[in-house]
Design a protein that fits this description.
about 100 residues, HU Protein, Chain A, 2 domains, 3-stranded antiparallel sheet, two-stranded antiparallel sheet, 3 helices, 5 strands
Length: about 100
């Protein structure tokens, strides 16, 4: 099975097919606004939960020592913020539907 990356353009095209009366440029502006809104909330330290899809949290990592793989030198890595993702039970069930069906 070939893996394919789903991109924003495909989302805009799918929404355009579903809502043909709405201009494609307006749909693109709306999707940009949604992603910008979610990004701003995460940057402000808020959790983002989309029911049936999943939850994103901002976590702060502790400072640590790491190794530069090229030189082998030990370096200090400072505090970082990263996004932690947990998919919803509904999404997990959808993703695994074919696998569970094949094992029966």
């Amino acid at each position: 099975m070939e893996k394919k990356t789903f991109v924003k353009k495909e989302l805009v095209e799918a929404l355009q097919k579903k809502y043909p009366k709405v201009l494609s440029s307006n749909i693109e502006k709306m999707t940009d606004s949604i992603f910008r809104f979610l990004s701003n909330k995460l940057a402000a330290g808020h959790n983002v939960e989309i029911r049936g899809f999943g939850m994103m949290k901002v976590k702060t990592t502790s400072p640590r020592k790491a190794r530069n793989p090229r030189t082998g030198q030990t370096v200090e890595v400072g505090i970082k913020r990263k996004i932690s993702w947990k998919s919803s039970k509904l999404l997990n069930n959808e993703i695994n539907y074919d696998i569970e069906k094949d094992t029966e």
